[in-house]
Write a structure and sequence with these properties.
It comes from Imbroritus primus. Helix content is 27%, strand content 25%. It is built from eight helices and 13 strands. β2 and β3 form a beta hairpin. It binds guanosine-5'-triphosphate and zinc ion. The site of guanosine-5'-triphosphate has 17 residues, from α4.
């Protein structure tokens, strides 16, 4: 077995009593912006070399100067969403309730990325919400619906919206799902993530500039993960986290045992496998493989599972 240290583990231990407490609302490498209860933003850095935090983390800080601080501790997390391969981990967000996967009718979306985002959410035990945007492009809609039918059949919620052509209707559809919860937006480039964010967070451009100015301290503009508060009128403490678009969604940190359970359609079959340690790849008497033969599990879902199992077994080069 590989020994895997969870990111951020090193920091969780000691929390000094008299420190200030706030939430990380933006992160760029080891540079964090921490929002304090009075609304001020502090530029913060972790103390230890290995210590990592994520947007959404509630941290204790010690003020080093008027607008600088040192992160001295992290409150226990409910969860931590991250990507990883055998070389590195990339933290996405902590303490989230929902993964909002933004897809579009045009350009075509990557089903691989969708599948991985669903697995990541399942592994954390949080809800995924699939949002199909640009439904106003009517000629592209049937094909997108066809590609998403499998995921509807698996029980995932798919909302059809049009962020630029039907603003009010889109807001009305999303609001009940987002209000009072912490959601992270995930999507490939071009799906309309920024358009959605602009719609959901009034004044987001100015807010982003403020964060960017602080975080970059006058240097080049980079992309980074940011947390926005949903409008007060939406009710209690809802948050939306925007992550920079990415092409790869490695889930190296998920063990085979976690992977098999992250496919909801596999779960009822696991007890049917002849061998208690069945890997569901080519074992005789496998409940999952039998269900595929009967047409009850989609081969492409199993192909994704097999690929993730392959990736998680990659050796770390010495
Ligand atoms: N027809 C249509 N176009 C849309 C809709 N939403 C967004 N777009 C367009 O799709 C393009 C991409 O939208 P963005 O919001 O920039 O997409 P993004 O996912 O943030 O992409 P990146 O900025 O590359 O990360 C823009 O030209 C938008 O105007 C929609 O509901 N319908
Ligand atoms: Zn099996």
């Amino acid at each position: 077995m590989k020994a895997r240290r969870s990111p951020g583990q090193a920091l969780s231990a000691s929390v000094p009593a008299a420190a200030l407490s706030g939430r990380i609302i933006a992160a760029h490498g080891r540079h964090y912006l921490v929002q304090l209860p009075d609304g001020t933003l502090q530029n913060c850095f972790p103390r230890g070399k290995k210590s990592e935090c994520a947007v959404g983390d509630v941290v204790r800080i010690e003020r080093a100067s008027a607008d600088q601080g040192v992160v001295t501790g992290v409150e226990p997390r409910h969860n931590l969403l991250y990507r990883s391969d055998q070389f590195k981990s990339k933290l996405l967000a902590a303490n989230i309730d929902q993964v909002l996967i933004v897809l579009a009718t045009e350009p075509g979306f990557s089903e691989d990325l969708l599948g991985r985002a669903l697995v990541a959410a399942e592994a954390l035990g949080i809800d995924p919400l699939i949002v199909l945007n640009k439904t106003d492009l009517a000629e592209r809609l049937p094909q997108a619906r066809e590609r998403l039918q499998l995921y509807c059949d698996l029980g995932y919620t798919v909302l059809e919206v049009s962020a630029s052509a039907q603003e009010e209707a889109t807001l009305a559809q999303l609001r009940p799902h987002l209000a009072g919860r912490a959601s992270i937006l995930i999507g490939q480039s071009g799906m309309g993530k920024s358009t959605l964010l602009n719609l959901l967070i009034p004044g987001v451009a100015a807010r982003t500039r403020e964060i960017s100015d602080k975080l970059d301290s006058g240097k080049h503009t980079t992309t980074f993960t940011r947390l926005y508060h949903l409008p007060d009128s939406w009710g209690d403490g809802g948050m939306l986290i925007d992550s920079p678009g990415f092409q790869e969604f490695g889930l190296y940190h998920l063990s085979e045992g976690m992977l098999e359970r992250a496919f909801p359609e596999f779960r009822p079959r696991l007890a049917e496998c002849r061998f208690y340690n069945c890997r569901h790849l080519k074992e005789p008497g496998c409940g999952v493989l039998t269900a595929i033969e009967r047409g009850e599990i989609a081969p492409k879902r199993h192909a994704l599972y097999a690929q993730l199992v392959h990736e998680t077994n990659q050796e770390v080069p010495r």
